[in-house]
Amino acid sequence: MEGLAAEKAVVSHEQDVAAMSDDPAKAVAEDSEHILAPAQARRLRWKIDLRVLPMLGVLYAISVIDRNNIGSAKVLGLSDDLQLGKGARYSIILLLFFPAYTLADLPSNWLITRVQPHLWLSFLLLAWGAVLTGMAFTSNWQVMAFLRFLLGAFEGGVLPGMVYMISCW
């Protein structure tokens, strides 16, 4: 009786494998065609390293510079234009960036696994650029505070996205 049950299990497994692929031997052969020779793998890694890593480095450098631009803008007249000298307006504008930056990390990490990394990073960078463009035309400190919050939200996903993209390669 046990022999008959074992035969049925083997037949059932073979039917499952056959259902997944018309020809299991062909599927194995197709997979072995995609294996790279060591020299090809080395060239591919260099190609990726020379194209992807410099772009990600430039993006990160721009994000660090952008994070610190508000101090330079204050010295160059932003404080006078938006009346940031009254109360804690300037501190509020500085402060709103960091909670959004911190809160954006977790959802960004989740979304980047659901969406392709290059699409998610492209969206973040496009939104980041739109927010920066909006900051150029701001004449109200409340709008600037809101835009700084959005900037933190979009910029908060950039670093985790870059790390995930590198880890995928």
User: Tally of extended strands?
Assistant: 0
The main pleated sheet reads as: none
Strand % is under 5%
The multimeric state of the shown protein is: single chain
* Individual helix count: 7
Return the domain count. Answer: 2
Helix share bin: over 70%
Task: Report a brief summary of the structure.
Helices cover 86% and strands 0% of the residues. With 169 residues, it is mainly α. Mean pLDDT is 80; it is low at 1-21.
Written description of the protein model:
The protein is an all-alpha fold. The chain folds into two domains: 31 residues; 133 residues. Helices cover 86% and strands 0% of the residues. It is built from seven helices and no strands. Helix 5 runs antiparallel to helix 6 and helix 5 packs antiparallel against helix 7. The longest helix has 44 residues. It starts with a helix and ends with a helix. The N terminus is likely disordered.
Note the main attributes of this structure.
2 domains; mainly alpha; disordered N terminus; single chain; 169 residues
Write the layout of secondary structure elements.
Layout (H helix, E strand, L loop, with lengths): L1 H19 L3 H10 L4 H44 L7 H26 L2 H20 L4 H16 L1 H11 L1
Helix pairs in contact: 3-7, 4-6, 4-7, 5-6, 5-7
